[in-house]
């Protein structure tokens, strides 16, 4: 079982040599030459300095298409017509599964037709030089966004290719993204990725790392997401990562979202070492969207308002076409502009919302209980602790497809639309906190005249796409 | 006797919430559900259909790679000598497609029914009852018996 220890330099080298042969582009990776490429980039393309020196939330979309020229055009459009402050390159799902042959077929099919056969940019297949063409062509820093449990080769190729930010982590890219990978395996693989980022940092090239906060994207209780961010932050810091952006996905209740973002920032500062610069990212709603662009823009706008009040360092925007697959570039840019409009109109207002402090205390108390349980499970070693805590169910994530999590926790919204838990499984949450959840959910159940059941969860999952926040049923529908 | 249906997300796709809700709805409607979960290969669908003597295979895909993932699926089903009803549902193409074209394409590939991502579970259940020639009452009775 892996321990939370820094990988030796020779071990990093040995593993990297083995990975080079997984796909032919791995052989193009040359660390010294990569450092030189990064050093040649102007300040405006350096991810961590741009993000960490910003005085307002920076906006970043998601975007990835299979072919290089089309990816350049798409990102340039989002930069110019959307006003993106930071750019992404979203990687296709075959690459995420290390299925480079299938990605190659999809890339070939996309080159030969007007239709895209991949849902993202297959960076490993493109190789180091194509990544650099992309970085050279744009004026804004670019992050690799994906969902890859074993992202070692992807990191080698894209970091050598000039990207300076890399999303993901051993829990956040395992639990929501796989069925069969163990946490032992993904922690080991991500120690390599983080150590590689650390190796760049040692040479003065700070690579920003961003654990994926939204997890399964569906009614995730804030404390669970924050605990995962802290664990991944600690693991990354051990390997020498110096710039960490911790994430959180909007649940749609403004008070709970603001409280969660504040708790995330505060606990990040508290738990992570002083030599790490901690920033936060807010993801606009990650669940099902309304099948109507006008209503979808409303969901996006609420994200903008929330961001203006909570002031995260970065906002990942959604597009009004979210309900149906990869958006057009116009819709993607529209999501950026809608968010910008709402943030800019709201951010200078002094908006006082009742209940944020109390909600933040509850989130912090719950997160600490989970972190204490992880600490106990690993006798002080966070890698072993998180593996054992997921085994015992003391840590858990709702709707987890991975065998590595029990998936016993079931969330539902309370009468205010805040996300609570009605099934805790073996989650390490003290009784007094459970009672708060039970009381709040009990109130909703009573108001709707029905029992807390899976049906309530299913109704809440559909609620926003159906036009509401809370999936209400029963006699109080009308009021 | 309850009718067995196989459920799973095909290919490299990890979108789990939809099939979780579908599983609950199908079980509540009296079906025996074998949920293969996310990232299920064609071979796993066929093996499960064979070993559970299933009458229907429900394929989910949200990430846009359904066409490549489902290529040759019905040949495989035929080769295994299976006589099952097949449905596919979700966001089946990468971009902003016209759903009627997508439906036609997947019908040509051999799927009996093709659903978009907005489909309510009850719609799929009603379709299953019709295609498996079950009356609602039979399904209800099956739930009580099981």
Q: What is the topology?
A:
The complex is a heterodimer of chains A (479) and B (146).
Chain A: H1 9-19, H2 31-39, H3 47-52, E1 58-60, H4 68-80, E2 87-90, H5 93-96, H6 100-111, H7 123-137, E3 142-145, H8 152-160, E4 165-167, H9 183-202, E5 208-210, H10 222-238, E6 243-249, H11 254-271, E7 277-283, H12 293-310, E8 314-316, H13 329-346, H14 356-377, H15 382-392, E9 410-413, E10 419-423, H16 431-448, H17 454-466
Parallel strand pairs in A: 1-8, 2-3, 3-4, 4-5, 5-6, 6-7, 7-8
Antiparallel strand pairs in A: 9-10
Helix pairs in contact in A: 4-7, 4-13, 7-8, 8-9, 9-10, 10-11, 10-14, 11-12, 11-14, 12-13, 14-15
Chain B: E1 4-9, H1 17-28, E2 32-35, H2 42-51, E3 56-61, H3 66-70, H4 73-79, E4 85-90, H5 99-108, E5 113-116, H6 121-131, H7 136-145
Parallel strand pairs in B: 1-2, 1-3, 3-4, 4-5
Family (chain A): Belongs to the methylaspartate mutase GlmE subunit family.
Catalytic activity (chain A): (2S,3S)-3-methyl-L-aspartate = L-glutamate
Binding site for L-glutamate (chain A): 62, 96, 145-146, 167, 173, 177
Task: Give a description of the structure.
The complex is a heterodimer of chains A (479) and B (146). Chain A has 479 residues and is of the alpha/beta class. Chain A is built from 17 helices and ten strands. Chain A is 49% helix and 9% strand. The longest helix of chain A has 22 residues. The N and C termini of chain A lie far apart (55 Å). Chain B has 146 residues and is of the alpha/beta class. Chain B has one domain: Rossmann fold. In chain B, α1 links the parallel β1 and β2. The radius of gyration of chain B is 14 Å and the shape is globular. Chains A and B meet through α5, α6 and α17 of A and α1 of B.
Briefly say what this structure is.
The complex is a heterodimer of chains A (479) and B (146). Chain A contains 17 helices and ten strands. Chain A has 479 residues and is an alpha/beta fold.
